[in-house]
């Protein structure tokens, strides 16, 4: 990222600060001012430049990762990735850049204050191009260690709703995240891993909390059961907690003849060490592509499926909401 690229935050705008930062970064990525492969500034450096809390920047980076624009690796930082989402963003933002540049020039020529112009533009859009009000919106809460992208995609598949993912760690440490989450939806979806925490967190706000769970497909259990006794098997997710969940599902199936290791892709040193000594590595969908590139002969996909009871719960809720 070029040193002359400076972001700004304006507490007087109605958009929360993390949204301001995220959209500026998406704009710069979209017009290729920030190119694929480049690193974003470290969170503490960005926070110091903007005079904000580091947790806010971490939240933005996590949101960008969740939306498919960056990858985050401990010890390396946050990198803009070459993905379909990036190409889609560039396709949208580049013609926008030309149009906005012309519009700003015309507004300035007429002496129209830009901030007022764009506030009025937003008002016009809200008045004349309203989105359907019956679109179901759900707030999904999960920790950063589990495969939250799997759950998000499954919730969307079953309900057809718009899904906003919020991490439990951010809700517990950053007040602005909780406030923004409260405004998004009256219904919260979370997993069995964090059901009690989430229900307690939202109890005073009278939020309806739906709890869902996932399991793994039988062919995978049969495959693992056929491994030689004493085989070294690593289970890898976004964080160690996710890896532990993956390993526990295998243990619950009474498969105890292997040596299991739970790892998060965020622990780069431990990850490399375990890949080298493992006979087999099972990776969640969120990290599979990255791990497969590192050890193609060892890495297999850990296929998760939504529990039938959870799918029924979401379907019934979607029907009642409509």
From TrEMBL:
<keyword id="KW-0238">DNA-binding</keyword>
<protein>
    <submittedName>
        <fullName>GntR family transcriptional regulator</fullName>
    </submittedName>
</protein>
<keyword id="KW-0805">Transcription regulation</keyword>
<dbReference type="InterPro" id="IPR036390">
    <property type="entry name" value="WH_DNA-bd_sf"/>
</dbReference>
<dbReference type="GO" id="GO:0003677">
    <property type="term" value="F:DNA binding"/>
</dbReference>
<dbReference type="InterPro" id="IPR000524">
    <property type="entry name" value="Tscrpt_reg_HTH_GntR"/>
</dbReference>
<keyword id="KW-0804">Transcription</keyword>
<dbReference type="Pfam" id="PF00392">
    <property type="entry name" value="GntR"/>
</dbReference>
<dbReference type="InterPro" id="IPR036388">
    <property type="entry name" value="WH-like_DNA-bd_sf"/>
</dbReference>
<dbReference type="GO" id="GO:0003700">
    <property type="term" value="F:DNA-binding transcription factor activity"/>
</dbReference>
């Amino acid at each position: 990222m070029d040193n002359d690229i400076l972001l700004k935050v304006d507490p007087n705008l109605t958009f929360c600060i993390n949204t301001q930062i995220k959209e500026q970064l998406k704009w710069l990525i979209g017009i290729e001012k920030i190119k694929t492969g480049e690193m974003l500034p470290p969170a503490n450096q960005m926070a110091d430049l903007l005079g904000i809390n580091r947790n806010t920047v971490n939240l933005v980076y996590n949101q960008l990762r969740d939306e498919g624009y960056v990858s985050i690796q401990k010890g390396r930082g946050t990198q803009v990735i070459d993905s379909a989402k990036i190409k889609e963003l560039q396709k949208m933002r580049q013609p926008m850049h030309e149009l906005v540049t012309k519009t700003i020039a015309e507004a300035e020529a007429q002496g129209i204050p830009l901030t007022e112009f764009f506030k009025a533009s937003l008002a016009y859009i809200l008045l004349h191009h309203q989105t359907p009000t019956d679109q179901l919106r759900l707030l999904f809460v999960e920790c950063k260690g589990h495969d939250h992208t799997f759950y998000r995609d499954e919730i969307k598949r079953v309900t057809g709703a718009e899904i906003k993912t919020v991490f439990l760690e951010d809700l517990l440490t950053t007040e602005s995240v909780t406030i923004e989450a409260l405004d998004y939806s009256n219904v919260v979806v979370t997993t069995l891993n964090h059901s009690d925490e989430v229900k307690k967190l939202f109890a005073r706000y009278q939020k309806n909390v739906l709890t869902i769970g996932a399991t793994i497909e039988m062919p995978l259990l049969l495959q693992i059961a056929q491994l030689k006794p004493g085989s070294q098997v690593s289970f890898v997710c976004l964080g160690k907690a996710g890896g532990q969940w993956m390993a526990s599902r295998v243990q619950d199936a009474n498969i105890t003849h292997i040596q299991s290791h739970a790892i998060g892709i965020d622990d780069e040193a431990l990850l490399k060490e375990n890949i080298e000594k493992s006979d087999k590595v099972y990776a969640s969908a969120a990290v599979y592509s990255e791990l497969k590139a590192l050890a193609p002969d060892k890495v297999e996909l850990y296929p998760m499926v939504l529990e039938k009871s959870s799918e029924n719960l979401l379907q019934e809720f979607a029907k009642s909401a409509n």
